[in-house]
Amino acid sequence: MKQSGYVFRMQLSQFKRERGMIIFYIACLAVIGILVPFFLHNINTSLIMAAFLTIMFLKPMLSDSLAGERERKTLESLLSTPINGKSIIWGKAIFYLLFAVCFFTANILCILLTNWLSGSGSGLDVWQWMSILVFAICNFSTISVVGVYLSALSGDLRTANSKVALAAYPFGLLFIVFLSVVFLNDVIVTVITGGIFLLICFGVLLVYGVKISKMRQSHYFENVKIKKTGKANERRSTGIVPKSQFAIVFRHEWKYFLTLKMLLINFAILCIAPAVFACLFGGENKLNIAVLITALMMPRVPANLIAYSMAAKKYIKQGNLCYRHRCM
Amino acid sequence: MNQIEFREVKKSFGNTAAIDGLNLSIFEGEVYALLGHNGAGKTTALRLLLGLLEADEGNITVFGNDPIKDGNAVRSMCGVLSEDVWLYEPLTVYDNLIYYADIYGMNRMEAGKRMDELLSRFDLLEKKNVIIKGFSTGMKKKVALIRAMLHRPRILLLDEPTNGLDPVSTADLRSILLELAKEQGTTIIMTTHNLEEVQKICDRISIFRHGKNIFTDSISKLKDSSHYMEQGKFSLEKLYMDIEKNGVSK
Fold first, then answer.
1. How far is Cα of residue A305 from the mean position of the Cα atoms in its chain?
2. Domain spans, chain A
3. Beta bridge partners of residue B207, listed in sequence order
4. Are B75 and A3 within 8 A, CB to CB?
5. How far is the alpha carbon of B113 from chain A, nearest alpha carbon, in Å?
6. Which of A10, A18, A221 sits opposite B52 (nearest CB)?
7. d(C-alpha A145, C-alpha A151), whole Å
8. Banded pLDDT at A200 (limits 50, 70, 90)
């Protein structure tokens, strides 16, 4: 626990240095917590957006947690110390859980306050607020623990992003379904649905908790699969010989993109998930939310790809090679 | 008990044998160099020693401890400096060092004293609260070296320690390493391609080839022998090139 505390403190120091991101989080809080409830007068939409935004912020942080350290090569240095392999995961997971809970709670408080100040009342009963908060803690715990564990076993940031997305988004959707149930204003239905969802969360937490407790230093290296481009890539690389340097870079990016099967699956899930959600739970209002969520989530995939394109190359030092060969 | 020992150690990654029946003995207080071509297995040997990798076959003991079973005990004895400096660049020198001091179980006062002592020795005291990002390679290397030496480790593992250091810092480093080995009995294991440096500070060398230790001898013995002389002096480079070309020593 003491060692997890050191990791937690280190995460906090790094977080405090990212002032640009902190300002961005505050701006998002202002939009979702103040502007949306003020203009829409709809607490449901504001809460769903807050939940989704929290998970959207959490996902890249979780992916970067250990896969990022691996790419920046600070992980090996950390593992060369007498720290336990599992303490690193717990320390990081607790930090991300606290971030998510604080961000979501701040959103809830802002939404409440805005609603109250605009004369609409709190919008929900106390039991509803409490059940949302309890479920949020359990849901974010599961996402954080699973996310950090998957990041620890990923060879690079791209792989981690794809793996973490497959864990974070389904749990995010579970949260939104739960929020919709809470808005039905039926205590029994909420308790039953909440109970089932909590069981799922605790089950997953238990499985990953056991896996993490068995983590040793060597597992960080021996269970990691580094993505190889494979034979399919070699086949694709034959054919037309590109004439321009632009074509060389474009073809290289395209080939790499096709190897990211997990990312493509994620993209497909992202496209259809909100629509499926709207169809399942019906109503014009839900469809509006679905469209809103899709619009919020869509830029993530191209944004990630753009961020990786040169930034990741700088880490793995391919950028220099590219300059040397005058590809740019 | 007072030695680091690899006995018939094997380690493969898929079909590639990184370490193939490695035998090695390093005594306490020795300055030992692991030499060899790229991919010879030097870094894998260091990772096995630290318990970051598990050997497929054979035994490794570090002063009587098994690096896998007693991993934390082994790692708390070691200070590691890698070729890539592995620092948290958005943080200050102090933040980086205090993180590791905490992990090694040093109390804040002791850590602060030791930090100041090492920082002033490497002319970095005024940079204590400066963010690492923007430091030159040499400065980063010095910070990483201070981090490795902070907890007065019994074993110091150095991977290309002089890479990126200016001649003055290299000479400083040499004197610090010699002092650590001779006065404090620190065991120093270094992997390097800088043969001149090896000749100046190492007691013994091993040359690796395809995961095997193909040559081990002490520098003093080699200096006394009449082989591998160049302009009347012993040349490690000549010996190394000969072994790389022929596979075995004369």
1. 15
2. 2-227
3. B35, B215
4. no
5. 20
6. A221
7. 10
8. very high
Q: Is pLDDT of B105 > 80? A: yes
CA distance B108 to B98: 8
**CB-based contact, A244 to chain B, within 8 Å:** no
Q: Which CATH superfamily is domain B3-86+153-246 in?
A: P-loop containing nucleotide triphosphate hydrolases (3.40.50.300)
Helix (H, G, I), strand (E, B) or coil at B77: helix
Interface test with A, best of B83, B92, B103, B151 (most A CBs within 10 A): B103
Nearest-10 Cα torsion for A175, A180, A182, A184: -170
Cβ-based neighbours of B99, under 8 Å, separated by 6 or more:
A6, A9, A10, B88
Q: In angstroms, what separates the C-alpha of A246 from chain B's closest C-alpha?
A: 32
Q: List residues in chain B touching A: CB distance below 8 A.
A: 47, 50-54, 68, 71-73, 75-76, 78, 80, 82, 84, 86-91, 95, 99-100, 102-105, 131, 147, 157
pTM, full prediction: 0.78
Is the Cβ pair A80, B50 closer than 8 Å?
Answer: yes
Does ipTM top 0.90? no
Q: Name every residue whose Cβ is closer than 8 Å to that of residue A228 and which is 6 or more positions away in sequence.
A: none
Instruction: Output the pLDDT for position A324.
Output: 43
Q: Which residues on chain A are in Cβ contact (under 8 Å) with B76? A: 81-82
Question: What pLDDT score does B63 carry?
Answer: 92
